[in-house]
Amino acid sequence: MTSRRGFLERFVQLTFGALGAVVVYPVLRFLSPPHVAEDRSARVLAAKVADLSRDGWKIFPFGSEPGILVEVAPGEYRAFSATCTHLECTVQMEKASHRIWCACHNGYYDLEGRNVAGPPPRPLTRFTVHVEGEDIYVSRA
Amino acid sequence: MTPVASRVAGWLRDRVGLSGLEHVVQTKTVPVHRHSAWYYFGGMTLFFFTIQVTTGILLMLYYKPSVQEAHESIQFIMTQVSFGWLIRSIHSWSANLMVATAFIHLFSVLLMKAYRPPRELTWMSGFVLLVLVLGFGFSGYLLPWNKLAYFATRVGTDIAGSVPVVGGFLLRFLRGGDHVSGSTLSRFYGWHVAILPAITTFLIVLHLVLVQRHGMSIPPSEERHGVPVRRMRFVPDFLLRDVFGWILALGVLAALAALFPWELGEKADPFAPAPPDIRPEWYFMAMFQALRLIPGGSLFGLENETYLILGFGAVGLLAFLLPLIDRRVVREGRSPLVTLAGVFGLAFLVGFTAIGYRAWWPVWATLLIAAGGWMAGRMAVSRQEGNS
Ligand code: FES
Fold first, then answer.
1. DSSP β-ladder status, B302-303 and B298-299
2. Please, are residues B359 and B351 in contact by the beta-carbon 8 Å criterion?
């Protein structure tokens, strides 16, 4: 048997506890952002052949992420995700060494996308390239 | 307290040294008399303010203050974010309830003459706080960038623009340019989430410190009874009643927000004509209606409505300076003229709001609430007298 005072104290505690919960729960849910449907389009127009002939490489938007398109030999193209597998910097082409380079922590990938030097732990994701006339399309493999 | 809790409390006491606060907790009392109910409205306003701060910060996490995205981001909050509709509805409803309790607080302080020395600064800071609350309402109203808000802002800023001499500057200052545009939106957002909150926080602290320093004012009508008024300890007796009121308010707020979610409206289109149901928020309605009743034309080179706008400004200034003006209440403990002016002001606000809405129910509701309050006061007094 609890005393009347004990019961009342319990009751008030429970009330405030419940009140706190109904406030905290919606707030926590509000704080976690909803998943926005991403543009998962399978195929994008990454570049024109003419764009690449100058530098030999190009960063293009693939959905909301950058991709990198490289001309490895005349008329031969490869595309990778341009997001470094280390800490998500965007990579670039280092023409002199014929490698893909990440400036953030000096990571290197070869033209197969393999991580060959520096901190990157995994190779870059490779995409498929289709050339249709002057247009270079990239799609997820 | 458990040993751990008391050790933590002791540790904090040694370092923070909140002896002032402890003193208040131990000694603060609240006078008990038939008008005591009005003491709750200041705390209630503060409660709504904390809700505004909390929900406002939450909304900032998703809101995007630009013409392209403002409306869409609120739509996103209302439809995609978990409980987003609830948080936004609570923010809107609580804003309206806060304006209402702030007005009630102001008029109760006015009629109970709580602005008497040494509480002049308490009144003045409180009056500025009310103006700031209205500023929050005005700047927040535009943020959803919907049709009603767009035109309300055009009208509102235009009113500021018609003030002689400084009007042109005021208008451009408020709008961030000559027209209501994206610049206005950024500006209002800045006011709403940074400038006004900063000033308001400072003034609330000042206001509360002053209230603690001087204690609750006892209305002169009660002081005249001569007998010392009964007192209630602030902690825990009055505070518990406060908290009870806040929980009740939270319940009302949640019910309003859930049953009548605040509408978003249609996105503003600067090249569309004003919608026929255009009107300001209810707390600007009295002024809006009064302006509508002024016939067009001009007098001595100023447009007619300018006189009214200047008149409102003058009344505001007089109200702000009231404790310095009303010497009679110091000498005689009563000032029927101020009471009359207060009642007149209240009647003007309620009456013109009612005319503006073409509905008399606010008047009846006010009269009913007033009658109910008066009866409750009567009953409390007779019970008290029966007890003693
Ligand atoms: S992020 Fe690329 S090497 Fe660290």
1. antiparallel
2. no
Q: Which residue of A has its CA nearest to B246?
A: A19
The terminus-to-terminus CA distance of chain A in angstroms comes to 70
Q: How far is the CA of A105 from the centre of ligand 1 (A)?
A: 5
Both structure tokens of B324: 């310095």
Greatest C-alpha distance within chain B = 77
Asked if A36 and B87 come within 8 Å (Cβ–Cβ), the reply is no
**Contact of B185 with B143, CB cutoff 8 Å:** yes
- B44 vs A97, B94, B104, B182, CA distance in Å? 70, 11, 10, 35
Residue B388 has pLDDT above 50, yes or no: no
Classify B45 as helix, strand or coil. helix
Using a cut of 0.80, tell me whether the model's pTM lies above it.
Answer: yes
Q: What residue has token string 């006339």?
A: A133
- Top-confidence range, A93-102, B83-92, B274-283: B83-92
User: Whole-angstrom Cα distance, residue A59 to residue B207?
Assistant: 58
CA–CA distance, A88 with B65 (Å, rounded to integer): 29
What is the rounded CA–CA span in Å between residue B273 and residue B278?
Answer: 11
3-state secondary structure of B23: helix
